[in-house]
Amino acid sequence: MTIASQARPVPSAAPSDALLEARGLNVYYGESHILRDVDLSVRPGQMVCLIGRNGVGKTTLLKTVVGLLRQRRGSVLLAGEDVGPLPPHRRARAGIGYVPQGREIIPQLTVKENLLLGLEALPGGMGRHRHIDPVVFELFPVLEKFLGRRGGDLSGGQQQQLAIARALLGRPRLLLLDEPTEGIQPSVVLDIERAVRRIIETTGISVLLVEQHLHFVRQADWYYAMQKGGVVASGPTGELSKEVIDRFLSV
Ligand SMILES: Nc1ncnc2c1ncn2[C@@H]1O[C@H](COP(=O)(O)OP(=O)(O)OP(=O)(O)O)[C@@H](O)[C@H]1O
Ligand SMILES: [Mg+2]
Question: pTM for this one?
Answer without folding.
Answer: 0.91
